[in-house]
Amino acid sequence: MRPEDLLRPSPKGLYSPAGDFFVDPTRAVPRAVITHGHSDHARAGHAHVLATRETLDLMAIRYGASFAGATQPLAYGERVVINGVGVSLHPAGHVLGSAQVRLEKDGLVIVVSGDYKDASDPTCAPFEPVRCHVFVSEATFGLPVFRHPPASAETAKLLASVRIFPERTHIVGAYSLGKAQRMMALMREAGHTAPLYVHGALTAITDYYVSRGIALGEILPVNGAPKAAFAGAVVIAPPSSMTDMWARRFADPITCFASGWMRVRARARQRGVELPLVVSDHADWDGLCASIRATGCEEVWVTHGAEDALVHWARTRQLRARPLRMVGYGEEDEEGALPAQEGEA
């Protein structure tokens, strides 16, 4: 069997001709396998959706209970057969419930990574390399300039600022699914026991994380809290809220933003970020290269970002490689739009 008979790009996303289903389709389709709950991968309106239990629950929170005609939860490592194609899900380490999709037919194995990272994250299962012939890798940070520091070091930087400025509010911009909860957990791991205040847009997803056994400590809503409570406090909010009237309630706030894009200082200046925190839920350049090698693959298909550099790297390692040039994939903002170079990074 040729790889393109098992999986190929199409106008609606990655399509399996052999199995007659799509992986992370960009438009409504009869059958979809979804890697994780971010809106550039998980769209509403499919007739049937297969994903991890957590991803299905998060899609229901974001889109409503009727986001799909039918749903099928699949545990990590569990295998089903769809029209003769074996399908299983394996941890991607991106956010809660995120998965790589392993496809197998006639001895050929293709793994679609979705979004992934090989760095430690207390809020989700760690990335699991899956042996395959073809690995479909994202490349959000697919340039050698992107080498992320340990998230613990960036968290220490934030908490040091909290100690230095005990009268000021630190507002941390963090995307609502994954990054916000990871920042909470990282602060708890670092010994920060004070209550954390959250924007209302984060409440439902944060509550779901807690319901899945992820310890985040005392989380309080911003609304209803007295202004005096915010002195020396950390407030976590969607990035889109940090420039509007909502942020003006805090006394002399220090604006922070947790994102891999904060490695680019011009981004921080453009956003008016005083304390950039380079914390990403995607693999950096070294992580991408190491993860690809760990799969033992013979061929790499690259999508979602800086494709050409990673393709070149793979070819210099005697791997067959090609960019997919997929249309419709990007990084989402908090309203669900997909502007270039913004999103769940």
From TrEMBL:
Keyword line: Exonuclease, Hydrolase, Ligase, Nuclease
What Gene3D superfamilies does UniProt report for this protein, alphabetically? 3.40.50.10890, Ribonuclease Z/Hydroxyacylglutathione hydrolase-like
Q: Name one GO molecular function term.
A: RNA endonuclease activity
Q: Does the keyword Hydrolase apply?
A: yes
Q: Its Enzyme Commission number?
A: 3.1.-.-
Catalytic EC class: hydrolase
Q: What is this protein called?
A: Ligase-associated DNA damage response exonuclease
Q: Which organism is it from?
A: Xanthobacter dioxanivorans
